[in-house]
Structure prediction request, 669 residues.
Amino acid sequence: MSTIQLRNLTKTFGDFTALKTMDLDIADGEFMALLGPSGCGKSTTMNMIAGMEEPTSGKILFGERDMAGVPMGRRGVGFVFQNYAIFTHMTVRQNLAYGPKMRGAAKAEIDRRVGAIAELLQLTPLLDRKADRLSVNILQRVAIGRSAIMEPAIFLLDEPLSNVDAAFRAVMRTELKQLQRQFKQTMVYVTHDQLEAMTMADRIAVMDHGVLQQVGTPLEVYNNPVNVFVARFIGAPGMNLLKGRPAESDRGLVVDLGPLGITPPLPDDLAATVRGARGEVLYGFRPEQVALAQDGRGLAMSVTFVERIGARTIVHLGQGEGAVKAVFDNDVGLSIGQTAVVAPDALSVRVFDAATGVAMKAS
Amino acid sequence: MDARTKPALRDEGARLGFRLTLPAQILVLFISVFPLLMQLYISVTDWSPLSGLGWWNAWEMWNSFANYTDLAADARFWSALKRTAIVMVVCVPAEFLLGLALATLFADDFPGKRIFYSILLMPMMVVPAVAGYMFFMLFQSGGPVNDILSAITGTRVTIAWLSDPTLALIAVMIADIWQWTPLMFLILLAGLVGVPEDQVKAATLLGANPWQRFTTIVLPKMKTIIIIALAIRVIENFKIFDTLYIMTGGGPGVATETISVYIYKVTTQDLIWGYVAAIALAILIVLSIVAVFAMKRMARARQVAA
Prediction:
């Protein structure tokens, strides 16, 4: 078990900057997800932690120990590859025993450890099966077991669920989370799937274009995105953002959205910050935190599309820059072409600076 | 109804398939099966092109398997076979190990890799007869090989490479290794590049050192390709002829007379074709056994490696 500290970590490949001065503290035993679209630098970060790539500058510390120059075989890191990288020409037992055997452990010691880990991962009946014809969840367990047998302080997982079909992912997610609870290791999990990050991680580090955007618990990241990128990236669908200008009204500070009309007044603490802002702002609200206004006070928009997916209904409203989505728990009696008046929940409204994309914090 | 139409349809398909492939099958029959039967037929006679009979009338010279009994007692045949085996046992492993070492080297990047790669493949492109003449010149007692040895040792070296029985065989083997290591290298490199990188990395992360990675991951993954490479070289090496014949003509005496050279001599000098047919058939059987063995191993390796 170990903490991981990234200090000013930078990686460039020629002219391309894959990672820019990243600082991140991962606590002992924490499940940290690195989340971002492809090319955001999350895998590069992971590879540097594992020692597969050397940082261009900056430091990686495990606990107090600087990892510069420590080869990957000596870092005490367990790595689960995207495709698991199971040794297909061996049996499950040989896969599990590989690490201790390579380090010259005694036969009896290897047998004992393989037995223990197989028991823990419920692989005992499969020990003598060839590893090339196992289902993905077994492969995942073998991959984890093969690393766990070395008792690594740190576990790194590189999008292990990306090759798994959707129906099976939920099962795998639960299993993975349970395994993490059992091993209590520090885990770093790379993914582009926010559902995986939200459901499993203690904290999420959201990345984009080699820059760390925000670190926080899943709910922090969801509720209080620090900038427009995080707001749009987290949530399915992402946060609605409408361009407008702050304006005073008799009911308090509102945002003038131009042709879309005037928003309901902002809460006082948020209004205090927004009032000082110059120029345009982005008025943001979660599609899930929208109600149909009964009193006609809200944003009147025409319905362009309705997705009914059983438990939820996603209503697409407006067009172009002014397009928003609203998600309702139940079916709503709206059809294409109708006008709906939607009112975002006042407390969940977020406002961003339109020029910089940075969130304006309530004072 | 289903049960009756389906086999009928399948028969129909099979018949059509047979008719469509018939020309090709006849061709195969003529170029492979027919000569084989002809060879089998001649091998039990004393027929020779000088006997004044058409080969189809060779039955008139039926000698009740005397060719095969002669063969079993033919010391020159057995020593040629032994010599072929020695060449094979030295050359194939040497080519394999050199090829594997080079392939391992070329799996990583280094400056000038492409140029070295092209140079390395060149021997394979040289016509074997030309390569034979090249080595014939190199190994002359006043040739470059002795010149180099002289420069190294500082004394005038005049080894008569091709007229010494042992040295001639060594020279011939050096030529074979020079010419055919590139093929081994090429096949093994293809196999090496196909080893999943992730599994090698995983082994590294689990603490395996480079030698352990090589023996536990890389080699097992290359098993099929190694067997293919070895089988190709064993079969080709068994038939070693062009370079060797031009360098030594099988000599001095019979010191480098391999099985192909022996067959060639019996065919063109002694003209006893019935006997030649018997020798060639015996060789074919031996090589077929090698091929079947290799293919069986390959099938098993594929099961294991997949």
